[in-house]
Amino acid sequence: xxxxxxxPLATASAVAIAAGTVGYFEGKENxxxxxxxxxxxxxxxxTSTARIGQTHSDAECERLLQQDLGxxxxxxxxxxxxxxxxxxxxxxxxxxxxxxxxxxxxxxLLRRLNAGQVQEACDELLRWxxxxxxxxxxxxxxxxxxxxxxxxxxxxxxxxxxxE
Length: 164
Prior knowledge:
- The protein is mainly alpha-helical.
- Helix content is about 60%, strand content about 10%.
- The protein has a domain at about 10-25 and about 65-160: Lysozyme (Orthogonal Bundle), CATH 1.10.530.40.
- A hairpin with a 2-residue loop joins strand 3 (about 130) and strand 4.
């Protein structure tokens, strides 16, 4: 019975971790705005249907976050060949949420992860700090957090330890 619960619990914890990570780093703006690289954005970094002049309720922003995160998790599942602990899955979903599936699918990060080079793959996150050709401090901080999650092993989670 416990084995049957392990996967749904791991998935649920990965979603909760990713939602917290994305929510923290994206922030929430209920009215559409132009992001630092000129993309119309609303809520928690949602872009695909955002239009200037739009306003969404908190509930709609939460719905869009869950929808967009679901797509990010599906992208991770499509492209990653290895089993992932919940923290690594959450880190990768947060990354895909931010950079998009195409960038992830073409990345050295993914190639290294699928080659079993976990440390090197997680370290690749630190390279993704540019937007519009310049380093953004918020991306530096986000990638450091995603890297830490990526490197965290399940036994460290249970013990309440950080990787660094």
